[in-house]
Amino acid sequence: MALLPIDLAMRAPRRASARLLWLWRSMASRLVLLTLVFIAVPVLLYDQFQRADEASQQLLLKSAQRQGELIARALEPELLGVDRTALPSLSIALARYGDDRTRLKLLVRPRVAASGAATTPSGAKAGPEPFFYVAAAPSLSTADIDAERRLLLEQGVLDRLGSSCAGNSTLAMRVPHLEGGEEVLSSITPIKTSFGCWALVTSHATEAYISSSIGRPYWSTPAVQAAAVIYLAMAALVLAVLAGIWRNLNRFGDLARRIVGGDDTPEREDRDASFAARNTVPELAGVAEDFDRLVATLRDSAQSLRRAAEDNAHAFKTPIAVIRQSVEPLRRALPAENARSQRALTMIEKSLDKLDGLVSFARRMDEAAADLLAPSRRRVDLSSLVERMAGGYTGLLAERRLHMRSRIDAGLVVRASEETLETIVENLVENAVSFSPPDGTVSVRLTRTGAWAELVVDDEGPGVDPANLDRIFERYFSHREPGRGMPEDEAAAHQAGAAHFGIGLWIVRRNIEAFGGRVRAENRPTGGLRMTVALPLAA
What we know:
Layout: H1 5-25, H2 27-80, H3 90-95, E1 102-110, H4 111-114, E2 132-137, H5 142-154, H6 157-161, E3 169-176, E4 182-192, E5 196-204, H7 207-210, H8 222-261, H9 275-278, H10 285-333, H11 339-373, E6 378-381, H12 382-391, H13 394-399, E7 403-408, E8 413-416, H14 418-435, E9 441-449, E10 452-458, H15 504-514, E11 518-523, E12 529-536
Parallel strand pairs: 7-9
Antiparallel strand pairs: 1-2, 1-5, 3-4, 4-5, 6-8, 9-10, 10-12, 11-12
Helix pairs in contact: 2-8, 10-11, 11-15, 12-14, 14-15
């Protein structure tokens, strides 16, 4: 029945919703989403924390700057009357305000140096930054003082003071000490006197300053690095757990495909031949063991079905054979003119033929069910098998005055059960032979079509009603005219479907689909039926 446009319009959103739901439930999608979250969260949080740290850093520097201003104002009266002879005594005055937490250094640029007349001891003109250290509290080595002065010169801090000797500013510089450790230069405060321009440098070595991001990138602080290590470890652990489960499920899927494909058998000595052996997640151990029990149960069930089919067929065929053998002496003992008795014996023989066919039918049904439960697969040279079986129909074709034309490509290998493939080819060829008229031709072709092996069987029979083309693969469907078929004897030749129960093509389709293939039937334009079987080629 054709779908109306409104039906198509309603189905499209449903398919889209189902696809979105599948993507949401997919572990791979969730793993990708979780990875993106783990990447996005630190980026967003880092930006927020960095802004908060910058605000905290500004508060610390402002506090240090205010502290430097207060100390400078306290020192200013003592610096107003200072001359060259009083410079060594400034360390005592500076020590009153400095300690291990707040360190002070005092630099001076004498006025004569500011006018450009100052010279170096060698007689050359002084450089553009003629500031000199005159005092420090606590005291520092000459090497540390020189290193700090070079840093201030490189950063242009002393240049920015200018000739006006104004402009209190924050520094945010880290200065390492030769004996180990470091301190943070927090502010520089200028003091202008008649002697020259003084610069009071305030620095701190407390934990609050050293562990902060002042004078270095925020990401290099110990707190951020420790948080990054913990976060990365947590993210790696979570992703490893999910990835482990995903890999474990893929291992289960690979093993399931191997079982279905026949690569895995109970006799095979393989450390990964069971779900439990392939499992690497302890929480999935119970699931893996359940899968192994399920596979073992299916294999046992298939084996039991095959054994029961063989035992039942043997149990039924033995009394049938005994009855058949007993009927023949009775026929010879009864007078030929006793029509009633002869007719009764004929009915017994026909019933035995029917019963024998039913027993064979039941056996084939059980074997087909067993093949579906646990198909036995291995590499089979389909070319050799079809060629061998095609050559085996010489006597039957001669008996029915038929001809066979075959074209078989060599080297086509598939993964399947050889016995099941023989049943498939047998059913297709015998079905074609049974419908072919005398002097007709049965054609068998095996060719490669891409990654598929394609078996085509043609006959010159009456074909099939187009309405029944799909139904011929249904179980118990058989549509034969009287005289069509391959009866065991002449007595059954005129009974429609005497030896046919409508399961041959049904078994073909079930087995072909179990091997990952497909089968279709179509009427030939020139008359007759064409059966096409496609099986995937073995890698």
